[in-house]
Amino acid sequence: VVHVMHNGEAIGTGPNISEAQILSQIEVLNQDYMGLNTDISSVPSHFSNVLGNPQIEFCLAQFDPEGNPTNGINRVSMGGSGFWTDSRKPGTIWNRSNYLNMWVAPIQGGTLGYATFPGSSANSDGVVIDYRYFGKKPHNSHNSKFDLGRTATHEVGHWLGLEHTFQGGCSGTNANNCSTAGDRICDTPPTSSANYGCSLTINRNTCTETPVDQFDMWMNYMDYMDDACLFMFTKGQVDVMLGVLSTSRASILSSPACEAVNLFSYSGKVVDAKTNEGVPNARVLFQGVVAHEITTDGIGNFTSMNFREGTYSIYAGKWGYMTTEFSASAFIDETTGGYTIPIEPGYYYDDFIMDFGWTVSGNATTGMWERGIPIGTVYNGLPCNPGADMPGDFGSACYITGNGGGSAGNDDVDDGEVILYSPLFDLTTYNEPYISYFRWFCNDGGQGNPDDELIITLSNGTEIVDLEVIDANAPDNQQWVFKNIRVKEFITPSATMQFIAKTSDLPGTGHLVEAALDVFSVIDSLPNPVGIPTIPEQAEFSIYPNPASSLLYLDVRVADELSGQIFITDLSGKQLHHLTVEKNEVIQLDVSKYSAGVYFVKLLTRSGTKTKKFITLQQ
Questions:
Q1: pLDDT tens digits for 174-195?
Q2: Which of 608, 386, 337 is nearest to 519 (CA)?
Q3: What is the pTM of this model?
Q4: What are the φ and ψ backbone dihedral angles of 514, each rounded to 5 degrees?
Q5: In this structure, what DSSP letter does residue 290 have?
Q6: Cα dist from 62 to 35, 59, 103, 258, whole Å
Q7: In this structure, how many other beta carbons lie within 10 angstroms of the beta carbon of residue 434?
Q8: CA distances (Å), 535 to each of 206, 282, 529, 577, 610, in order?
Q9: In this predicted structure, what is the pLDDT of residue 526?
Q10: 3-state secondary structure at position 174
Q11: Residues with catalytic annotation?
């Protein structure tokens, strides 16, 4: 995908380059990477035995990440006169697992282009080319030295793992060690420094390697010569590129983005699991060859006009309902009937696989809250940004501050505050509401002792209370921490509750500040059944974590003279597990085989019963 970054110019003017110029660049890439470039005949005879042909073909994407048709050109206005900065990458990038992202933009300082190597951050991976050096003449007539499209050939080489032919130089004994000299590929002769221009002699040799007749391969695409004097890869370079495509970039080989397939309209409905009535404004996610996220209409119906055939995991949910995985593997084509998807009401739950309407604000210069797949960063050997969301929930996303990757200080919260707000929720019908969530906080580095905080608050519309204030001295920082909060201990429940997470970086100190939030839920503990005596203080139990994904712990407190029975049932009342407990005991249960949903734990003693609810989240 070619992201054309412009400043409002008409198409074909300045940075807003024409489609013809873009197509000419794709043509050059295919010629150079398929060994079809006409100037390949100029390869000197002494390099003919190492001449390589990658046989790699490029195409402009036919589908965007949501499965909609595209011509592979994404035009983005930068909002006025300005130059490119990498801060624009996260907001424009398409999933690097399926796309080679190429940004064409006005670049300051005379830089022709640059690229990321394999293993780079997921939200910044790709190639950047100045618009004056993208494509070939006559569509590109800006610079006669670099108007044949070889800048992109060179930068895509980096994206596929190649270094400059002069990267390691050739000083001292390094000249005779092909694993350290030059580009560290043994059939590419070492070069002491970059070659420029287009008038060098064939037998130019800037190193003292043995044998001395290993002339500089200045015509290699990974040198700095003018476009007209770059026209070859070596077999060793081809091996490196194909190795990258079979490992760290393997997913791009199976990307569906170039396939020309028929699209069709696909419809279905989301209903309330209790009333069977349609649920308006619910979210439905089809995750497979592409991702379709759709909102239902006023009676619960949904339609995707550009659906494509494939196998999908299907999720549905809404704020005030429990997110459900309707199917883990459903094949859908144009003959497939529309699914009716029930979702359970009475739960405020969000693991951020879909967008349920959380909002953000703040005045920090970097590090704003965002919903996405976290990109890990490390400081002094410890994680600062989490490298993954909380395991066991649906999807891989969470809410996280500053997710730009790179070093720990590249995109953390700086010089201000960032605030995350939940949608409003109504607790007036809840008997004993509990809020649970997983949170992450990192505060380190900078000048002096770190002194920033993550503050978790709860509002009922008239007052706000602190649930947690986490600072740099908290013993459980830089890891996912589960919290389960009894609402009535802090605030009076209302119909306009809101959960808020705020963190900030105090000006002038430069400390690292990162925070994250995942698996938010509100549940109601069950009242005691009518006619059954309450359990006295000497018999009690707690369950954690709740929600659970693999292991559930029951911390049972039974008086010496009592024994108890534990029963686990599903929503229908079907018994799934039974065991006997004696005195004080912590019981570990494996719930990984339970389907995602709601279950009950009942403790029965001769003094009475007590029941609690838990949620499983595994896929």
A1: 666 777 888 889 899 888 899 9
A2: 386
A3: 0.62
A4: -140, 145
A5: S
A6: 25, 9, 17, 5
A7: 18
A8: 87, 40, 12, 21, 7
A9: 46
A10: helix
A11: 155
